[in-house]
Amino acid sequence: RNLVENTTKWMGRDAFNNVIPAFCQDAEDQGVQDKDSASLVRSYNGGGLDAVTLSMDWPSGADFKPNKGDCVGFMTTVMESCEGNDPDQNPMN
Question: At what angle do helices 68-80 and 13-30 cross, to 10 degrees?
Fold first, then answer.
């Protein structure tokens, strides 16, 4: 259960893990924010149970270029630390 939005929406670890490399590769390949945006945003598995939107934000004009290896590492850390093994806060995980 997502306590912030009070919904029962969730995404399986494997499904999330499967989109991380594609997102990070796309971010590295594009190298800049989406047009007229301060972000790079991609959606995966639209309409399905595992639908997810991932984004990477950084200030316009900053000396920054996405790196796939770093991106995968940071996204994996987020995935691995999402209220895992906390039955009081996330009983369905």
Answer: 150
